[in-house]
Design a protein that fits this description.
globular; 4 strands; 4 helices; alpha/beta
């Protein structure tokens, strides 16, 4: 399985990469910045996309929408419960 993680925080990327590595899923994780996310997802067609926005979720809605539109797979938003209600 190939997963793509889009996140601008180095710390969050490290935590999520470690969690995926330790999950036993056998997935390989490719991390990229939010700016690169839509192009990376369209190009590589991963099996799962993880989006971990930093800061205000409202400012990330266009970015999330863009990634969802090009993804041919499930897209998971990693963040606070309040983010889910907003999205």
């Amino acid at each position: 399985m190939r997963w793509t993680l889009a996140c601008d925080s180095r710390e969050t990327r490290q935590v999520l990469s470690t969690a995926v590595s330790n999950s036993g899923s056998g997935a390989t994780l490719h991390a990229c910045s939010s700016v690169e996310a839509a192009n990376q997802v369209a190009k590589t067609q991963p099996d799962l996309v993880l989006l971990a926005p930093d800061g205000s979720i409202e400012s990330h809605i266009p970015w999330i929408r863009e990634v969802v539109e090009v993804a041919g797979c499930d897209v998971q938003l990693v963040g606070y419960a309040t983010h889910a209600r907003t999205v």
